[in-house]
Amino acid sequence: MPHATQHADVATAELDTALRGGPFHVALRAAIAARGLPLQRVQHHLSRHGVKVGVTSLSYWQQGARRPQRPESLRAVRALEEILQLPDESLIRLLADGDERPGGRQPATRTYRSLLAASGVLEQLLADLDCSPDAGLHMLGHHERVRVGARRELLGRESHHIVRAHRDGVDRFVAVHHGDPGCAPDEMTARALDNCRTGRVLRDDETGVLVAELLFDTRLRAGDTFLFSYAIEDGTAGVSREYVRGFGPAGGQYALQVSFDENALPVRCHRFAQHSAAAPRSGRQELTMTGRHHSVHLVEPRVRSGLVGIGWDWE
To answer: Which top-rank group of organisms is this from (predicted)?
Structure first.
């Protein structure tokens, strides 16, 4: 079987190179390929080691869409070293190197791949809540206030909505929060503020996505308008560098305000827009911070499909 032997030699060589230089996801993918294990078998071996990791998470790890960061995930990586017959600390070392490598992926910036991974998870979470993305509502106005704390972390946000129902019987809205990489969704909370109450809350640890069902105190008829607000408490990740809001269909006015702790002020802030998560950013505009309240803002008189956000530099 010369072809099989040659293929095995190539796979081993690729694994050796990846283990020396990384990055982590390339080394993990090479190790799984070299052992010839499907992800379902890898998951089975992990469960025998007392570690629970989903096939989807393993797929994200080897694609580079997510990095294992939580304690349970790091236990899984150490178990993978044994399962895949790798030297001790070989994968863990690459994780540590990836956090420090100049020019590498910034730990608190949402990349296209992380957004793509989160979008797939979001679809499943919405399906679990038996909810469509628009929930039968058109946005007329949305004012969002984001708070950044003294540790430069995303503390949380408040969202105030003005909506109009486009069908009868609408009695809820599903809020979506995508935390910064390294966040702990289990420690986040969703809190109803005005004209609603909190229902079911679902979370996905690997993508940092939280969805919260906000139940209205009335059933809307088509054409009815409604005002409600809620808050998400986060503060579980590291240094935050931007906040991004995505929109599907065109809608009404959107205002985003980012407020900073007086003991942790960025050196620059700017707005940006994207037609999609895969598209280049455009419309960059420097924002001036208010002196007394340490905040910057943007206003979109009529949102278009795509993404809009505010980014900031710490030094």
So the answer is: Bacteria
